[in-house]
């Protein structure tokens, strides 16, 4: 557990940096999808960062009507380090005349200025509207997948959608699988190869997360690189903090 002085020091280090957006491609059929999201949050908590989880997935709770007026008031504090926002439908509420929802990213940053990371889960068509230019093209969406062929195809389809509709060039992959399973590595390599050959996209980082496994070197590297692509250098890893989402 961090001391008050350590936490204050980390917050001061990030005081002049705005929250960084880490998009997560919703894939509700993935077995253990919630565990993957929890593991990614935990990887940021290990680094002493504060996280806002924005759940706009197809199975999420709908966004409150109040969100259109006061987004900050809709954020639920799950702990000192983690905030939660039910956000299904919120992206589509922010479409401009060009069909872009880019302004939502700025609203989220304004609503949670204390957050270092905004982890936003949404379906590919909605993420594409959020990430389309003028959003920074260095944004690195995280794909969720498991060992099922249908879910691998869904992850590839989502990557293709974001590549073609939003111009996203780089992705990361979180696999719900035992970390040392050879099949997991083959799936990651297959997806990376298809991304390179057919989409002109890159998949440089992947991590497998098994049941109850919330930390690993590949996961920590993946989480770090999703921020480095936005120009953020995070502090060295610290002792993991357990967190429990009570819904």
Descriptive notes:
This protein is of the alpha/beta class. The chain has seven helices and eight strands; from the N terminus they run αβαβββαβαβαβαβα. Strands 3-4-2-5-1-6-7-8 form an eight-stranded mixed beta sheet, sandwiched between helices.
List its traits.
eight-stranded mixed beta sheet; alpha/beta; 7 helices; 36% helix; globular
**Chain-averaged pLDDT:** 87
- Which strand-content bin applies to the residues? 15-25%
Biggest sheet statistics: 8 strands, mixed
Number of strands: 8
Helix and strand sequence:
HEHEEEHEHEHEHEH
Strand order of the largest sheet: 3-4-2-5-1-6-7-8
Helices, by number, come to: 7
Inertia-based shape: globular
Radius of gyration: 17 Å
Task: Kindly report how far apart the N and C termini lie.
Answer: 23 Å
Class from secondary-structure proportions? alpha/beta
Report helical residue fraction: 25-40%
Low-pLDDT runs? 230-247
Helix-strand blueprint:
Layout: H1 4-13, E1 20-25, H2 33-46, E2 51-55, E3 76-77, E4 82-86, H3 103-111, E5 117-122, H4 124-131, E6 142-145, H5 149-166, E7 170-176, H6 182-199, E8 202-209, H7 217-228
Parallel strand pairs: 1-5, 1-6, 2-4, 2-5, 6-7, 7-8
Antiparallel strand pairs: 3-4
Helix pairs in contact: 2-7, 4-5, 5-6
